[in-house]
């Protein structure tokens, strides 16, 4: 077996994603050298799926490195965590300064920040790349979100932009930012995915339990929505799921246990939002909805103990066609809030971690190949292209007008669902955020007074009420009862 450096790209990890990505890269004219810890898998892959393609095998990390042209580009598609660090340590003795290690797994962004620093100190380059689109995306065009060492981008760009999905002929891959930015953006993508899925599930719940529609009627509603503003991958597959019948001719979806799983990226997004003080409420509710679903046996018991609203003839009076139209608008408005929150979070993370994020580029990366791909992401790209310093997506004229148009329907659907006793945490929190965000003054003044009353946690005066007795921009404590002291506790401003 020749050790001549003939390969353009190396990939470690031949599970489903790894194999499909290798084949995708080879199809675009690049020679790939592949390695797997269980080396028999390499031989099976070469003899079957990769037969006749520009793919060569390696039976060790050392052999893989010898067969790569410089600068070496080695992608890891292995389980996130210790396995990534272990492979990095195996690779280091066999590479040279300027070579590139790419982590294409679902790594937590702090690990990518650490790995970028560690490898750059040794003279190597690191890329933490979010990969979205699943098995089919890996094979025929994923959404790729690379970040890390900027010097690596010119070397991986031709390959990444060749193999990724395309939207309006533009590659769904661009440089995201420094250190852990790529995996952070992928994490937020997954968090938004949680929110989108929860909103769709709530719409389904309203149609099923509130309007008493059958699965085919629900499928028709999703099919109709997919022709307009809600055109997206998740709406499309929901239509197909609702139409799918089991062997006995009944809807398969109704036989699936209502306990949702999760791999943690939505939770990571919610935790990051709390850490950075950004109200990403919809993703948080989507995570909690999954945890509530996991309490199946407890919910079954609760259903026999706890009562809801008494059903009346009111529901019979609802015009179902009109209600479905309003429900579609409510879903659209809620989705816009979710994306606005996601971009708010990325904006704050960019400040915190000193990343130069390209919001228009991120929207384009999500236009195709990934799970949250949808038509209106093109409008998000336009919004950030038109105003690179856009403070909030809801301030863009297109999205402001879209929410204005949907607002009446949004409020009507939520109020009706509440009267029906149907849980809609994602719809509700989207509207609550919108109403909170548009209020110049919130009741947090009372909250601050309470905190100062019981814990001397201080407060500040509104600018219009400052004078000699009411200092401006200073934390003050008041002796509310006449029995307390004048010493304040530490201050905290969210």
Automatic annotation (TrEMBL):
Lineage: superkingdom: Eukaryota
Keywords: Gluconate utilization, NADP, Oxidoreductase, Pentose shunt
Catalytic residues identified in the record: 186 (proton acceptor), 193 (proton donor)
Annotated Pfam families: 6PGD, NAD_binding_2
Start and end residues of each 6-phosphogluconate dehydrogenase C-terminal domain: 182-481
Binding site for NADP(+): 13-18, 36-38, 78-80, 106
Record flagged with keyword Signal: no
Catalytic activity, as annotated: 6-phospho-D-gluconate + NADP(+) = D-ribulose 5-phosphate + CO2 + NADPH
EC code(s) of this entry: 1.1.1.44
Chain sites annotated for binding substrate: 106, 132-134, 189-190, 194, 263, 290, 451, 457
Enzyme class of the recorded protein, top EC level: oxidoreductase
Pathway: Carbohydrate degradation; pentose phosphate pathway; D-ribulose 5-phosphate from D-glucose 6-phosphate (oxidative stage): step 3/3
GO BP term (any one): pentose-phosphate shunt, oxidative branch
Gene Ontology MF terms in the entry: NADP binding; phosphogluconate dehydrogenase (decarboxylating) activity
Role according to the record: Catalyzes the oxidative decarboxylation of 6-phosphogluconate to ribulose 5-phosphate and CO(2), with concomitant reduction of NADP to NADPH.
Complex and partners: Homodimer.
Family membership noted in the UniProt record: Belongs to the 6-phosphogluconate dehydrogenase family.
Record-linked PANTHER family: 6-PHOSPHOGLUCONATE DEHYDROGENASE (PTHR11811)
NCBIfam families the UniProt entry points to: gnd (TIGR00873), PRK09287.1 (NF006765)
Record protein name field: 6-phosphogluconate dehydrogenase, decarboxylating
Organism: Paraglomus brasilianum
Lineage start: Eukaryota, Fungi, Fungi incertae sedis, Mucoromycota, Glomeromycotina
